Amino acid sequence: MLVPLTRQKFEQLIPRIATSDQYKYAWGKFPDFLKRLLISVVSVVAIWIVRLIIGEGFGLILFPVGAIAGLYWLWGPVLWASLRNTEYRKYPYSGFLRGRVLDVYITEELIGTEETVNNKGDLVIVENRERRINVEVGDETGFTTQIQAPLRRTHQDIVPNQIAEMVVLSTRPDLSSIVKVTDIYIPSRNIWVSDYPYLQKNIFIEMSRRLRESRGTRSRSAPRRRPRASYPQDVEEW
To answer: What is the pTM of this model?
Structure first.
């Protein structure tokens, strides 16, 4: 099932400014924090040196600039997460896709390397690997997509044939060409699969629930007939 979404609903699902979940993701690990802190310190020192060179007259201008630069370690994740949202928000058309899990498997991926020195003084390159889950989802039209994400304990409950939902993005009004997909949601287990949390989860879950109820009501009231292959048309509230 594929239901086109209005632009208003899509912008609620992926807001312009980073959400709390996106901020946490962009915050990163301790080394990421140290990098931002170093940038903040270097920026403040650079602005202080400029102030010494050009004199006190520009203090009113340089002070707010220095304050903003000094807090980069804090607001940096908002900037980078918001820019990531913008990459998805540039697509003009979107839809709610409900399909099924076709396959689930675990891989070990290389996420980075580090250079270190062993006891003999030799340079050693250490590979950082991470176990990741791969979930393939498809629908009745033959469309398939796959998402890879860091493995979580809750992912052990994902099995083939479960209902899977997501938002898909397209450059065409009829959504005949899908170019991007968002997080996968497994409603029967309330499980999310994603690397970056694109969607506002509470809004998506409510939309999913209303669509299930609406579809169930139509199924009970409509006479039995041969299933149609066409997708549902756009509905105003979506």
So the answer is: 0.81
